[in-house]
Each structure stands twice: as structure tokens, then as C-alpha cells.
Amino acid sequence: MKRYDTIDALRAALGRARQTGRTIGLVPTMGFLHAGHLELVRRARADNDVTVVSIFVNPTQFGPSEDFSTYPRDMERDLALLAEAGVDAVFTPAVEAMYPQPLQTTISLKPLGDILIGTVRPGHFSGVATVVAKLFNVAQPTRAYFGEKDFQQLTVIRRMVDDLNFPVEIVGVPTVREEDGLAMSSRNVRLSPDDRKAAQVLSRALSEGAATIAAGEGDAAGVLAAMTARIVAEKGVTLRSLDIVDARDLGTVDRIDRPVVLLVTAEVGPVLLIDQREARPA
Ligand code: AMP
């Protein structure tokens, strides 16, 4: 496994691979890797000749009062996990390497980046879309892999690629969970044992909501009310948002007559957790 810190070095290495007709799979991450990230890597390796993982905690997707400085980091451990997983190249740029000058060009999606999590984290999806566009231009991957856990992010990236004709195939990968259902996240390490237990309510409420929909409940407001009651009854969990939206464009849904996705955002202890579950009407 080779590690590259600069855009030029990664470009040169991947340029050689591309010239010999090899396909490139890119997995963008912010590091502190867990089994969810490694599932994206596994998929990328299965589909492509060369697998590249980027590790970059991107400052432009964090708000001023968010956890950029306390976001968990462990480069040595991440590199060992990726080497073991059979990754060919790791891209680990410093902030100055990605942003040598203040950007005058950014990408924002309207309304897709401003709704749902975009209302809680203004500017977040513009930061995400812009850094992913930069990574696509640097690595020029054949395919890029994103988790369904960050469902709005996946939708934003798919739409950006469609709108701006990026020559890359976007692959969405189902959420990898802990045994008790909690969606794996780098931020889970900051949950106390009590928080960790309380956090289970999110995946449980999502499963129950999806099961109700599959059993024939078509009224989104009714499903949301039952899920809300379940979550707010859990001590230590502060519900921030709960939505049932169209699985394709994240548009509002009142009658559940097409595939939808249930999205939840909640604060558990010091951590903002998100989770999702897709559901289909009976
Ligand atoms: P992050 O390092 O949190 O930015 O995540 C990097 C990529 O891994 C994103 O595409 C995430 O959606 C994906 N990811 C994070 N957690 C999971 C998970 N539990 N299951 C599947 N993919 C995940």
C-alpha cells in the first residue's frame, strides 16, 4: 500500500494506472475507520483494479460550533487497517494541500443541500459536495463508494454527478451496524456506556417505523408520531429531526405510496448521531 500526501503525487500514480486501462475505485473518508468504512473498501476492491481511500477531515463541512477539532483521529491505526484490507493507495493530504488558497469556487445544491440535515448544519453539504468534487478531479475514479447511512450525502453526490456530468459511477453501500443495531460511526467512541445503550432507540424506532409501513400504514404523520413518542421517551436522547421522504429526491411525502426513507438526527450525550432506513409500502 502506498501513501500519498500531495495531489501531484496521487495524480501521477493514478495516471499511470489509468493509462494501462485499469479501473479505479475511490472511497472518501474522514478516517477513524470502522467496519462500515471497510465494507465500502471491500466493495471497491471487488469492482475495481485499483482501490484508493482518502482520509481527510474536511474543515469546510463543519460549522463554527461543530466538532472539527475534536473529531476522532488515529492515522496509524487507519493505515494498518487499510493495508490489511488490501487497499492500493491512501491519500492523506494536509488541509493546506487541499486548500492552498481560499476557495472562490464552491458547489451548493439547492434545495437538496438546504433541507433536512442542511437546516441543522447550514453549509455542510456545500462543504461535502465541494471536497468530493475536488477528490473526483484529483483521483478521476471509475467508481466512488458512499454509505447509505449518510443518505442525504449520497443523494447530494448523485445529484451533483448528474448535474455536472462527472464521469464517475456512484455506488451506495448499505449501513453496517453494531450487533444491537446502532449504525457504526466514528463518533460512537464518544458515547458513554449509558449513552451507547440509549442510542439503540434510534435504529429500533427506524425498524418499527419501516415495519409499520411494510404492514400497510400509509399515513406518514401517523408513523412519525409513533416513532417520535418512542424516541423522546428515551432518557439522554434529544431528537433533532425525524422525516419520511421520497427515497429518490428526498421530497416531502404525506401518503406513503412509493419507496421512502426514514431519516433521524438526534443528540445522544455530546454526539450528533444520524441514521436511516428505507421502507416500501405494502
Ligand atoms: P465518514 O468517514 O464518516 O465521512 O464516512 C466515510 C464514508 O463511509 C461515507 O460514505 C459514509 O456514508 C460511509 N459510512 C460511514 N459509516 C457507515 C456505516 N455504518 N455503514 C456504511 N457506510 C458507512
TrEMBL record:
GO terms for cellular component: cytosol. (R)-pantoate binds at residues 61, 153. InterPro entries: Cyt_trans-like (IPR004821), Pantoate_ligase (IPR003721), Pantoate_ligase_C (IPR042176), Rossmann-like_a/b/a_fold (IPR014729). Its EC number is 6.3.2.1. Pfam families: Pantoate_ligase. The keyword Aminoacyl-tRNA synthetase does not apply. Keywords: ATP-binding, Cytoplasm, Ligase, Nucleotide-binding, Pantothenate biosynthesis. The active site is at 37 (proton donor). Homodimer. Belongs to the pantothenate synthetase family. This is Pantothenate synthetase. It comes from Jiella avicenniae.
